[in-house]
From TrEMBL:
Keyword match Glycoprotein: no
CDD domains to which the protein is assigned, alphabetical: ABC_TM1139_LivF_branched
Translocase in keyword set: no
Family annotation (InterPro entries): AAA+_ATPase, ABC_branched_ATPase_LivF/BraG, ABC_transporter-like_ATP-bd, ABC_transporter-like_CS, BCAA_Transport_ATP-bd_LivF, P-loop_NTPase
GO molecular function annotations of the record: ATP binding; ATP hydrolysis activity; branched-chain amino acid transmembrane transporter activity
Any one of the GO BP annotations: L-amino acid transport
Protein name: ABC transporter ATP-binding protein
Family (UniProt): Belongs to the ABC transporter superfamily.
A Pfam family it matches: ABC_tran
Location of the ABC transporter domain: 2-240
SMART domains for this protein: AAA
Amino acid sequence: MLEIRDLHVRYGGIQAVQGVSLSIARGSIVTLIGANGAGKSSIIRSIAGLNKTISGEIFFTRHDGEEPVSLRGLKPEDMVRKGISLSPEGRRILPHLSVEENLYLGAYSRKDKDEIAADLEWVYSLFPRLKERSWQKGGTLSGGEQQMLAVGRALMSRPDLLMLDEPSLGLAPLLVREIFEIIKRINAEGKTVLLVEQNAFAALSVAHYAYILEVGRVVLEGPGRELLENPKVKEAYLGG
Ligand code: ATP
C-alpha cells in the first residue's frame, strides 16, 4: 500500500533520516521503533506532506490494482483526500472546541453527511468515553482522553492508512493497554496502521511488521513477534 525508497530528511545541517526504505502492506499494523531523535516522526511527517526538505520516493496505492502514485510534493490536505491521516504527537486538539466539534473537524474535507454521522458513531463506539464527554471542551479533557480524541479525529477523515505518532505517550499503564486494544480493533475493522512508538514492547506485540531505527537509519526489521524475541532488541529496547 505504501512504499518508501531511500528517504532522506534534512533540517538545516541535520540529516534526520538517512536513506530509509520501507513498505507497508495493506491491512497490516507496521511500527517504527527507536530512541528519541532516531527519525521516526520525521518519516511519518514526510508521508503526511509536512516535511518539505525530503529526497527519495514515497508511493501510495490506495486500492488494490491501482497504479502507485507518488506523494512527493503533495500538501497535507491532499494526503487526507487520498486516504492518509495522521494523529500527531502531542495531541494537538483544539482546546476551545467541544469533543464533537473536534471530531467533526477531522471530517472537514468530506461531504458525505450520512457517512460522516455513521463514522462519528463508530468513533464513539471505539471510545465510549468521548461519547460521554461529547459536549466538553477539548482542553479540559484528561491527557488520555485528549489522546483518544486525537485518534478519533484522525479516523473521522475515513483514512485507509492511519498514522499514529506516539499514541501511548504519557498514559497510565491501564490506558496504554486500552489504546493498543483499540488500535488492534481499528486494524481488524479494515484500516492499515503505521504506528510510531517509544513503548517498544506494546508496539511490537501488536505489529505485523516492525522497523528499528537508529540515528536516521533502519538497523533491523522483521515481524513484530520475532523482534520481541531478538536478543539485541531485548537489550536495547525492552529493558534486557
Ligand atoms: P522522538 O521519539 O523523540 O519523537 P523521533 O525518532 O520521532 O524522536 P524526529 O522527531 O524525527 O525523531 O527527529 C529526528 C532528528 O531531527 C532529531 O535530532 C531532531 O532534533 C531533528 N529535528 C526534528 N524536527 C526538526 C526541525 N523542525 N528542525 C530541526 N531539527 C529537527
